[in-house]
Amino acid sequence: MNDTVNIKELNEKIEKESAFVDMVTMEIHKVIVGQKHLIDSLLIGLLTDGHVLLEGVPGLAKTLAVNTLATTIDAKFSRIQFTPDLLPADLIGTMIYSQKKEQFEVKKGPIFANFILADEINRSPAKVQSALLEAMQEKQVTIGENTYILERPFMVLATQNPIEQEGTYPLPEAQVDRFMLKVVIDYPSRDEEQLIVRENIAQEFPTAATILKPENILKARAIVKEVYMDEKIERYILDIVFASRYPEKQGLEKYTNMIQYGGSPRASINLAMASKAFAFIKRRGYVIPEDVRAVCHDVMRHRIGLTYEAEAENITTEDIITDILNTVEVP
After folding, report:
1. Closest Cα partner for 185 from 55, 59, 63?
2. Whole-prediction pTM value?
3. Which of 103, 184, 226, 317 has the largest CB neighbor count within 10 A?
């Protein structure tokens, strides 16, 4: 009985504390037409201190969505265009000699912001990618002999174009694993696109209002951790991740030779955190299996390695995740 009362209290608390989610979504939708899944994913990353990798063809408002999110929060936004000749110093900063002071001074790079948009991350060489990933993982940057802690919230949103492979440096698996979510963005519907055209040829382009401070986000992150997750849901998450490692144990023998490696423990942690954030966005104080299923593809799609057999038979990670979700018993 005590549990039910707690859940009821928790539910009321979460409903009250998550009111800002609707306001943020409403502001973003003033600028972005449709793309609900993209906006939810950005909010999940924001609420769980996770980074998001966005994949989609050019022109699907990836940059605009990130910029608009940064506008709704009174936060600093940096856009870095990744190119083959980019250097780590262009990203994190460097030491510059000041003739006036006759000493070296630190010139901080664009990484010193709350929201970083790493545009076309796969265009730059490994050195630059690893400099960015160190900042993502450690939340700090070393320039010369000094280490600088990055501002909170700190969130990296990287985009990559799936079409062009020439002159790109695909992200290594260990680096891709640092991203909490990999979101694949699709074209808008016909009606949505008509609205997009109308907005863009109008006299004035709509803008989002600033309604939050960075401290509101940090407070919300602490509350997201309070969302209740039952032991059955925890076991369900583990069943899904373990099925990606040992598919034969879940009756998915056909994938035994298709999967090179499955999700790491980071996949289990991120699946649990993303599920809690999704419940919070839905203004609920507890996680249900539907929350796990809603975020599963985004959390898992970049964490399953395929063998040559899978590629030869045109089996994708999407197919495997869908089959796992259809096979694993829902609590």
Report:
1. 55
2. 0.85
3. 317
Cα–Cα dist 161/81, whole Å: 13
CA distance 172 to 188: 30
CB 80 within 8 A of CB 314: no
Q: Where are the alpha helices (DSSP H) in 112-254?
A: 126-138, 173-176, 190-201, 214-224, 231-245
Please compute the mean of the pLDDT values over residues 16-21 and round it to a whole number: 81
DSSP symbol at 121: G
- Residue range 270-316, pLDDT digits in tens: 999 999 999 999 888 888 999 999 999 999 988 888 888 888 888 88
Q: Tokens for 148? A: 């600088």
Q: How many domains does the chain have?
A: 2
CATH number of the domain within which 129 lies: 3.40.50.300
Encode pLDDT of 62-109 as tens digits. Answer: 778 888 888 888 888 888 888 888 888 888 888 787 788 777 877 888
